[in-house]
Amino acid sequence: MTATAAPPCRAGLQGFTIDPAGNVTACNEHLSDTAGNLAAEPSPQVRQRLRARPAPRRCNGCYTPCRGVGNALGGGVLR
Prior knowledge:
The protein is of the alpha+beta class and about 80 residues long. It is built from 2 helices and 3 strands, in the order E-E-E-H-H. The N and C termini lie far apart (about 40 Å).
């Protein structure tokens, strides 16, 4: 049996995390790296910052259920 690498991370493009206070992060593994707060600013600005983030998209340190489901559903990008 050969091991295969996890697909590239699409955090912030295919999905994101919102905490109870409205803070938005690309990934639930990097909660301190916020892209903005939906309670304090318009969502288009937050989405723009999510799409512009280079990290953690190259990260393969996890394969959390949210990432696995996103990869399984397809390669779409949030608009």
